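Notes from the 1:1 (GR / supervisor)

We went over the backlog. Supervisor wanted to see one worked example end to end before approving the batch request, so GR pasted a single chain during the call. The sequence is below; no edits were made to it. Supervisor asked that the structure be written out right there so they could see what the output format looks like.
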Amino acid sequence: MKKRLFTAVLAVLLLLSCSTIALAASPAATLDADKLNELGLFSGAGYNADGSPNYDLDRAPTRYESVVMLIRLLGKEAEAKSQSWDTPLTDVVAWAQPYVGYAYTHGLTAGYTATTFNGDATVTTAQYLTFVLRALGYDSSSDFRWDKAWEFTDALGLTNGEYASYNNNKFLRANMVQISYAALEMPLKDGSGSLAEKLIAEDVFDEDAYNDTQDMQLPPVLTEDPSEWDELPISFRIDGREYASYESYRHNGHSFTVEVLLNGDTYTNYTVDHATKNADGTITVKLNGKNDDGFVSVHWHYLDADPSFQPEPGEDLLARTDFIYEPDTVVKGLSLQWHGRTQEPGSGFGTSSLSRLVVDTYYDGQPIYDYSVTTAAGSPFTASVQADGTLLIERDGSGVGSVTIYYNGESATFNIRF
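Structure output shown during the call:
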């Protein structure tokens, strides 16, 4: 029997176009970064344009970043940030002083020289493994050789020989997050339990949150089994908002830019006929007229299949989003707009994956900037008005809360969930 080879095909139906998309699985390191982020142990190196963390996993970690991870794995971040530390190190930047001060004072790290830390320098495999072993309670002066720390981590089962031949240029933030998350399951030297159990007991994160990260899995990959086709998490991003399969995009125009997403990631390695593929890999869809409806769909297409397998018409459909024409409507009074969708007072919106939302505020359909906001008690987020007039909502928990907008003697409340 011939081996079946499948590929996803993007069809922009009104334009009779189709696209072959090459898909790849997300790396395991990103999953571990997500897990650490959920536990509050890893914040990344900033934020992407959509508000999601930018983990920057493909570069080497700095001494600053490694010390921060060490303090968090020790469960000492709150203590480190609550005090001022007196050290001879004169080159430590302000944000890193609590972490470096705690680590230096407690003998967890040394200066680069007697008076400098050189925090922007990168760390080696041995140096980071030494940090993690110290978080587990081991001592480099008696339990292991710091310059061959991988030999000890291999013996403990934290690593499995993969770092024995690493040099300084190969150790990346991706390695740092994978080692750090694996360390949570490791038993402490004193036999009192695992590192995760210690951090749970110290209220660094709770047990339910940790168990949830244990359930997080790598995203599914393309399969040759047609019974699993409809399980692939394909969605579409239009005007900055992600639309799930069979969710409609309501428009009052005739030209749209569409991205196809698998597991929330954009894929651009495909070719297109009878449509416009842009330089950034997106597709431009143009309807024949402003009032037209249409749709974009993703199908299976078998290139070399067992001739005994022939899907019925329509059975190969994986995902679809419709373009539904609606004339302009203006919401009277206060409203919010997020990802291109208007939210009226009393309505709810939110996300389970982002750590912050940037929202525009309107009155009678016009953007406003001179307003104020309050957050309801118990809400799993904080809200503030930014210098550019946008409303920034930053997550610090999960659940549903609300914000109230005050403008020109009026107020309106909106529900937000994380």
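Supervisor's comment: DSSP finds nine helices and 22 strands in the chain.
Batch request approved.
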